[in-house]
Amino acid sequence: MKRIALFLIVLLAVFGCGKDDIVPEAAPGEGVAYVFDPSVIPEIRITTTQDEWDRLLGLFDQNPGTQEYIHCDVSFKKGSETITVSDAGMRLKGNTSRRRPQDGNHYRHVHFGLDFHYYNDDPEHTVKGLRKMDLKWFKDDAMYVREIFCYDLFRREGVWTGIRDVYCRLWVNGRYYGVYGMQEHIDKSYLRVREKQFGGHGGNLWKCRNGASLKDENADMGVDDNKTDHTYELKTNKADGFPAAKAQLQDFIRNLNSLSGSAFDSWISSHMDVDLLLKTYAVNVAVGMWDDYWNNGNNYYLYFSNADPKNYRAWLIPYDYDNTLGTSLQCGVQSDAGRQDPLKWGHTSYPLMTKILQNSSWRETYIGYLKALCGPGGNMSPSVGMQRIRDWHAMISSYVRNDTGEDMSISDIPAGWGNHHEYRLLETGSNNFFEVKAAAVANIK
User: Is the overall model pTM greater than 0.70, yes or no?
Assistant: First the structure.
């Protein structure tokens, strides 16, 4: 057998692959690691015909929430290597950030979603095996850092469910749009990259929107059809798996609310990785993510490892971290995302975190993760957090000015619509968010 294998290798080396031979796409993990390499800022160029660009504008005019794609070509340049994908799909993304991408002669920053295989489902229509990515402008973040910081922190703390998010430079139809965040899209590819941790990638993935408190098993649940937003929206197994997926989610919500004490502890331990959830929430609270599950029933995904309505494992996937690090708002039980008690982060009626923290051992674990994060030398300690931001600014500062005329400089202020305009990230003192958060964690009783 070894001789035969060696003979085949020699034949391939001599004759090569024919033009009709299929070249396998990169393994998902390898492709993601290549594309989302934080040490290099890639250049992305999107090109559409004028007709397709006008069609995008028309789709927005008809429905500002449109999720329809248009045709485009994409060039992805990393270092000396350029990968070109012809006839890919592009659409607008976002919720409150949505706006018309062109107003007269003024081109605006908007979020874009790229689907390289939308029109051509084959290995050639990928970037190193990656089929989708999201491109986000730094809306209301004059520091150009908040979401990048948070997802990086998840990874540093071993929260493997957090997506990858790095900087890129973006051009659209020859116009330079400046520095964008390039994000991993949460879909089947995301699941495949983590299938060893999840125990597979064929389970049920739900996107959970505003009002997804996990309190009501009869809440709005539906399939992602690119038309209607649901409170709980199924992203996988959409063709014929919705009834079983819904029954599974309802079982999870039912037990989450009905069980208590040791019965709840035993059930949640067998259905979730509680330690990972506690670490996820320690990071979530440390960065001041108030628009989350616990406080606002919003901005998370749930993934169930299989289709079994009773025997499954569930994971909470953190999502959408641009309104953090001092961008605060009166919402839920909160009025100050820096000083809010980490043990009273959200509604006591929202069962997941409330019931888990009733267990004294899990409560101490959660507190321990927070103190390690925000204490001396921790990844959220003032000196460490601020230095990481300075390093990123050194990478991107010369690339920020752009052809839209928007977001032309880096400035140490939170979002203007927030309720705490005093917070700063690089100025030390009583208004430094890292210092405020460290004090709030130190005061936990």
Answer: yes
